[in-house]
């Protein structure tokens, strides 16, 4: 491999990494900056609305004084589109019907007029007056396409503790609409990318030059931002300003420096070499990798992040570890409460343990029977026994649910034939759990049977013959030959079966539906209920999902280590 | 070439001259859908004048609320849609639906049954015009019950005569482990869910755990207990099945059950629910309203409101009541001779007078699951009414507290 090729690969790798970093930094930066700019644009409107509200409060019921105040605010500059005071003279039969009237309006012809549908814009002011009664001050920025940006501010006027009127001011801010200009940022990001490019090719000598460039860039951007801020403050008529955030710049600088170091360690080069060597393989894998990224990793990452947020009415708030604390502390419910995490965890473990035990025992027993060389119609039995597995499991679940019905279920009818009184299956924990267990055992044993059958075929006959010659009983040869030789096939199947059963949503949800009182719910159905049946708590549900993932991961790691199951099978 | 331009111009003319149509989503099926589409056609064929056309689209009911919640904030949703009022609070809080009281007058509001329009209010705003109302009432099999009971004592007596548990015959069927179907007894015994504090329905105080509510639960347990008149493990499907087989003398259900009944075999009667003998108050089911609502993202709001006014006008409502047997919410419709002549519709109309408007607040959505759990426990005898209600109230309070903190966080 030539030196030139190596340098090119390293430079390309550096460029890709730097672009990724630059994009992330730009997104963060723009978000923060827009928020700052919005605050700047909103400040004058809020200040005018407060002034107007104060004047109206002072004026009391005097419409002339209120009108004068409105005109005064309007006179503050051509940026003010409208200043108005809305009052509600009387209420009517319906709580939503309020006649709203302008006590004052910067357009003098509208003073004392009722807000109505002939005037464009009255609807928005009418609704604002409604919301102000409950929400207090409101400030909103509208940036419709092809129209100037408008800021609406509304302030309640309270007299003697009661809502008296609403002061509304609409301005067209002088500051450019949020999102412009971004050129200093764009230039800076281009520089970062270039630095990355250079970093990839950096030899120890050039390394110092590159680091100097990064520091220079940060200083330049810092200075440029200071100028921008002064520019905005001069235009805005009020003192309320949000300083422009500078931390994304610092972050970008640190990351760029990191890239330089990484480039120095020839990471980019190694990446490029790998890519080049297995070019065709990577090409083939790309569609699948993209599919995985979009369909698996993105939702996975989304779910992971969601666990740290709380959801209410479409807004997500970051709450840190609060969801996890709520779950792991039991949420203030006693341990015997079905919604307590540890209760549900206990039920889930019991559910998984009993199921897997039954699946393996029944599956193994049937496999041993089917293996018997003297058995006739083996094929037919095999088909019949695999059938439960072939039917979609929700259909089986609904059939079993019907069979366990108190009045009409087949199970109770059969029990009655034997003189047992009808059982109300879903009224008690034990019976409801048993109903779930029976259903899932019906669904689960065929898989274990198939696995055992396959493994049994591969045990050579002569081992048994040798044991027979040595005088071993059938019981002895089962424990000393069959079981040890089954282990490599059986353990991975058990691990898989455990994970399936642990998350067996359909059976629990459809058969017992958690009855009675949510006590037969397992973790996965509990998570579902938090998200979609109780209070839309998506964050809490995501936290549940993450906890389930951690439990199962721990389980898999421990069992793998204990049994070395995977090694035995694949080595 | 010129000809091609002319053809193109003709094709594009409707789009440019009439502007964007108003998209209307609904979940109506069968006769209700036909009646609605007939009204939309009338609007499009001339009633609209210079206003935009309505383009109606049927969306499956199960996915409806989720689609609205997801589509409207992203700008893909409809301009208008029809849905039950119980999501009004949620959608108003997340600014998905438009308040419409600005366009309303008292005379306009007077067109509708007061309770139906009241259900579509949230806070101080109105968020829709009522298309129809829904509540449960008492269905009875005329062959087994000649005259419907007036009081619960009568109800129990008639039901006892028609109950033979061994043969699978029951006097009364209803889904007694669901708050929705238990509500008539709850309110009839004087219980409540939220108690209003002042005018604002958003600040109601939780009042689930009360003596009256416990008495209602005890009564329901008496009906549904081991020697009761209600079958164990009832469900809405079981209600329909038993009633259709003639094995249920009476049932508590809503207008949606009519379509599932075999009226050739069973002589179906509907009457308002009886008065609770212990209190003298009528049993009072939940009242729900189906509202025609406007998306907050609608770009032609004035025109959309006019379309809403047309679709809920008296003339259209009468057509919907006659053709689709929809319990419409217009006062004028109930004075129409053809509507009055329908005994089943009239029974639901009479039931409305004693029904309780179901709160459309986000808080109410937190009540269902814990309350259903309390009912389940009482029905299977694993807890007494007092204990079950105390547990339900504690659980609802936990949900309310978590919603409160989420809200405060959201405004920061």
Poorly predicted regions of chain A: 235-241
> What spatial form of chain A do the alpha-carbon principal axes imply?
flat
N-to-C CA distance of chain B: 62 Å
Strand content of chain A: 5-15%
Query: CATH superfamily assignment of the domain at 325-570 in chain A?
Result: MetI-like
CATH class of the largest domain in chain B: Alpha Beta
CATH domain class of the domain at 325-570 in chain A: Mainly Alpha
| CA radius of gyration of chain B | 23 Å
Task: Provide an overview of this structure.
- The complex is a heterodimer of chains A (571) and B (412).
- Helix content of chain A is 66%, strand content 8%.
- By secondary structure, chain A is of the alpha+beta class.
- Among the domains of chain A are: 47-171, PAS domain (Beta-Lactamase, 2-Layer Sandwich), CATH 3.30.450; 325-570, MetI-like (MetI-like fold), CATH 1.10.3720.
- Chain A has a 5-stranded antiparallel β-sheet, sandwiched between helices. Chain A has a two-stranded antiparallel ribbon with strand order 6-7.
- Chain A starts with a helix and ends with a helix.
- Residues 235-241 of chain A have low confidence and may be disordered.
- Chain B folds into 2 domains: 19-134 and 287-341, Periplasmic binding protein-like II (D-Maltodextrin-Binding Protein, domain 2, 3-Layer(aba) Sandwich); 137-284 and 361-411, 3-Layer(aba) Sandwich (D-Maltodextrin-Binding Protein, domain 2).
- Chain B is 43% helix and 14% strand.
- Chain B contains 16 helices and 14 strands.
- Chain B has helices at residues 2-18, 30-47, 64-71, 88-93, 106-109, 114-119, 152-161, 179-188, 211-224, 236-244, 301-311, 314-324, 337-340, 343-354, 368-379, 385-411; strands at 22-26, 54-58, 80-84, 121-122, 125-126, 129-134, 137-141, 170-173, 194-195, 205-206, 248-253, 268-271, 286-294, 356-357.
- In chain B, α2 runs antiparallel to α12 (314-324), α8 crosses α9 (211-224) and α15 packs antiparallel against α16 (385-411).
- The longest helix of chain B has 27 residues, at 385-411.
- At the A-B interface, α3 and β6 of A face β5, α15 and α16 of B.
């Amino acid at each position: 491999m030539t030196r030139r090729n190596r340098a090119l690969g390293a430079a390309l790798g550096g460029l890709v990494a730097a672009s990724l970093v630059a994009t992330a930094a730009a997104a963060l930066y723009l978000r923060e900056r827009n928020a700052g700019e919005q605050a700047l644009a909103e400040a004058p409107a809020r200040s005018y609305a407060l002034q107007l509200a104060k004047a109206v409060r002072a004026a009391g019921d005097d419409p002339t004084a209120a009108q004068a105040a409105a005109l005064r605010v309007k006179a503050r500059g051509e940026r003010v589109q409208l200043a108005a005071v809305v009052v509600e003279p009387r209420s009517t039969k319906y709580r939503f019907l309020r006649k709203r009237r302008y006590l004052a309006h910067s357009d003098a012809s509208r003073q004392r007029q009722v807000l109505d549908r002939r005037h464009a814009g009255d609807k928005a002011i009418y609704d604002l007056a409604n919301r102000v009664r409950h929400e207090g001050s409101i400030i909103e920025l509208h940036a419709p396409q092809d129209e100037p940006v408008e800021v609406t501010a509304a302030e309640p006027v309270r007299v003697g503790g009661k809502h008296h009127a609403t002061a509304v001011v609409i301005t067209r801010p002088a500051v450019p609409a949020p999102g412009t200009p971004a050129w200093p940022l764009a230039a800076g990001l281009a520089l970062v990318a270039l630095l990355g490019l250079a970093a990839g090719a950096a030899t120890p000598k050039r390394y110092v030059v590159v680091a100097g460039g990064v520091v220079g860039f940060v200083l330049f951007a810092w200075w440029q931002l200071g100028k921008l801020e002064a520019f905005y403050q001069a235009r805005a008529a009020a003192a309320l300003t949000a300083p422009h955030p500078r931390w994304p710049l610092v972050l970008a600088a640190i990351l760029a420096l990191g890239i330089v170091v990484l480039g120095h360690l020839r990471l980019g080069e190694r990446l490029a070499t790998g890519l080049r060597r297995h070019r065709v393989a990577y090409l083939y894998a790309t569609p699948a990798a993209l599919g995985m990224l979009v369909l698996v990793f993105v939702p996975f990452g989304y779910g992971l992040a969601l666990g740290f947020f709380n959801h209410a009415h479409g807004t997500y708030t970051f709450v840190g570890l609060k969801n996890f604390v709520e779950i792991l502390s039991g949420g203030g419910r006693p341990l015997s409460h079905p919604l307590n995490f540890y209760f549900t965890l206990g039920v889930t473990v019991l559910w998984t343990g009993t199921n897997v035990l039954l699946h393996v025992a029944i599956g193994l027993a049937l496999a041993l029977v089917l293996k018997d060389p003297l058995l006739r119609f083996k094929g037919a039995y095999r088909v019949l026994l695999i059938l439960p597995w072939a039917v979609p499991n929700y259909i089986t679940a609904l059939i079993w649910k019907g069979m366990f019905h108190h009045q009409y279920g087949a199970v109770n009818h059969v029990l009655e034939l034997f003189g047992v009184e009808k059982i109300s299956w879903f009224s008690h924990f034990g019976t409801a759990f048993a109903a779930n267990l029976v259903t899932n055992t019906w669904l689960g044993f065929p898989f274990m049977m198939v696995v055992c059958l396959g493994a049994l075929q591969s045990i050579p006959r002569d081992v048994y013959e040798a044991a027979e010659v040595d005088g071993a009983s059938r019981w002895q040869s089962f424990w000393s030959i069959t079981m040890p030789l089954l282990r490599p096939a059986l353990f991975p199947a058990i691990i898989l079966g455990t994970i399936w059963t642990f998350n067996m949503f359909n059976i629990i949800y459809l058969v017992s539906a958690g009855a009675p009182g949510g006590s037969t719910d397992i973790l996965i159905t509990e998570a579902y209920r938090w998200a979609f049946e109780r209070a839309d708590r998506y964050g809490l549900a995501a936290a549940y999902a993450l906890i389930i993932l951690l439990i199962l991961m721990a389980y898999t790691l421990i069992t793998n280590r204990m049994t070395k199951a995977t090694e035995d099978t694949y080595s | 070439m010129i000809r091609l331009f002319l053809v193109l111009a003709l094709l594009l003319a409707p789009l440019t001259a009439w502007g964007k149509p108003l998209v209307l989503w609904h979940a109506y099926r069968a006769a209700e859908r036909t009646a609605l589409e007939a009204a939309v056609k009338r609007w499009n064929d001339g009633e609209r004048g210079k206003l935009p056309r309505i383009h109606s689209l049927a969306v499956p009911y199960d996915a409806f609320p989720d689609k609205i919640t997801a589509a409207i904030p992203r700008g893909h949703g409809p301009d208008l849609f029809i849905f039950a009022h119980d999501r009004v609070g949620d959608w108003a809080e997340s600014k998905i639906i438009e308040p419409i009281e600005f366009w309303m007058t008292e005379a306009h509001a007077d067109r509708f049954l007061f309770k139906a329009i009241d259900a579509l209010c949230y806070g101080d705003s109105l968020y829709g015009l009522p298309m129809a109302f829904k509540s449960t009432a008492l269905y009875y099999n005329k062959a087994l019950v000649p005259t419907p009971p007036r009081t619960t004592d009568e109800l129990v007596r008639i039901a006892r005569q028609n109950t033979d548990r061994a043969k699978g015959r029951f006097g009364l069927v209803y889904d007694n482990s669901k708050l929705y179907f238990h509500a008539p007894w709850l309110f009839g015994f004087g219980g409540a869910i939220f108690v209003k504090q002042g005018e604002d329905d958003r600040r109601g105080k939780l009042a689930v755990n009360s003596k009256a509510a416990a008495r209602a639960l005890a009564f329901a347990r008496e009906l549904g207990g081991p020697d009761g008149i209600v079958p164990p493990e009832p469900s809405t499907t079981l209600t329909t099945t038993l009633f259709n087989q003639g094995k249920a003398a009476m049932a508590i259900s809503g207008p949606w059950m009519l379509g599932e009944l075999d009226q050739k075999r069973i002589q179906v009667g509907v009457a308002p629910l009886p008065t609770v003998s212990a209190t003298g108050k009528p049993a009072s089911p939940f009242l729900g309203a189906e509202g025609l609502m406007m998306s907050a993202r609608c770009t032609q709001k004035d025109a959309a409101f006019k379309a809403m006014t047309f679709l809920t006008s008296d003339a259209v409502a009468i057509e919907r009541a006659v053709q689709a047997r929809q319990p419409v919410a217009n006062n004028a419709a109930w004075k129409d001779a053809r509507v009055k002549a329908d005994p089943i519709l009239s029974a639901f109309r009479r039931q409305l007078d004693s029904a309780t408007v179901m709160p459309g607040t986000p808080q109410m959505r937190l009540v269902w699951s814990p309350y259903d759990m309390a009912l389940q426990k009482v029905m299977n005898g694993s807890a007494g009414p007092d204990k079950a209600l105390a547990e339900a109230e504690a659980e609802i309070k936990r949900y309310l507290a978590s919603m409160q903190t989420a809200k405060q966080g959201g405004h920061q």
